[in-house]
Design brief:
about 280 residues, alpha/beta, Rossmann fold, 7-stranded mixed beta sheet, 7 strands
Length: about 280
């Protein structure tokens, strides 16, 4: 393509710019993935998004500077669409990476932006199709008539399934910091006619009575909580004696994850099954 279009003048330069941007974005992505091993400042995450974002307007600008309006005529459109498509794909991947580290919970200022939630929603839909929520819930000890808290419920992938597991005599509390998440869950339960799910819009506090919950699901959430110690205190408060927290350690080093869950001696590790940890409430 570079040789064919305008004797290579447009494409050669554009491809050169895109290759440079792609190399920089690749190094930034490698740095970003290394940041998932802890909670260090997410420099790589920012760079992996900023580099393709800058290249999106830069490419057509460079084409116009080189060859004027000819850059957007004829085969120029094909060149532009190709390189812009790569840059856009890089940007989307960067946003998906952001979900695990940048978008922390705890305050309105740190809440995931609407566009981030929409992207996350698509990812969670794909997870539903692949059947991951069902596989995760099979590892939990949920029985009819229980009260279960889905903390960080997202789009309700787990909440709706747990509602069936606890039955009409039980209840599922679906809590999330994001208003869009609560709207999605409420729409789903209306559509399915589910009556035993109660939604809670909150950054941390559940508003539930003391020792009112049998189990808590904390799936892919802990790393996005700013006040982790405060969260554990709240979950300890609402869990019944002998109640359990089921959680995952995504984006956290194992030692860091265990240190967080061990704060205050509130919970003790019972077991782990295929990435899902079970911690039991410690009396105190």
């Amino acid at each position: 393509m570079a040789v064919y279009h305008t004797h290579g003048m447009v494409c050669t330069h554009v491809v050169r710019y895109e290759v440079i941007a792609a190399v920089l974005a690749t190094f930034a992505a490698i740095l970003a993935f290394s940041e998932y091993r802890g909670t260090r400042k997410p420099v790589g995450h920012w760079l992996s998004a900023l580099i393709p974002l800058i290249s999106i307007p830069l490419v057509p600008f460079a084409m116009m500077i080189r060859t004027g309006s000819r850059a957007l005529l004829g085969d120029g459109w094909m060149v532009l669409a190709t390189v812009e498509g790569f840059a856009l794909a890089q940007f989307i991947v960067a946003i998906l990476m952001f979900r695990g580290l940048i978008f922390k919970r705890g305050t309105g200022e740190l809440m995931m932006p609407g566009i981030g939630f929409m992207i996350m929603r698509m990812v969670l839909r794909v997870r539903e199709i692949r059947g991951k929520p069902e596989r995760t819930l099979r590892r939990m000890k949920i029985a009819k008539g229980q009260a279960v808290l889905d903390y960080g419920c997202g789009i309700g992938s787990f909440s709706t399934l747990m509602a069936e597991m606890v039955g009409n005599a039980g209840v599922v509390y679906a809590l999330d910091i994001h208003p869009l998440a609560i709207q999605v869950v409420e729409k789903r339960i209306r559509k399915k006619g589910i009556t035993n799910i109660k939604t809670i819009l909150s950054s941390r506090e559940t508003g539930l009575p003391v020792e009112s919950v049998d189990a808590v699901l904390l799936h892919d959430v802990l790393q996005m909580v700013t006040d982790q110690e405060g969260l554990l205190l709240e979950l300890h408060r609402v869990l019944k004696s002998g109640g359990s927290i089921y959680t995952t350690s995504e984006h956290l080093e194992h030692g860091e994850f265990m240190d967080i869950m061990g704060k205050g001696g509130l919970f003790s590790l019972v077991g782990k099954r295929k990435g899902l940890f079970e911690f039991e409430r410690v009396e105190g």
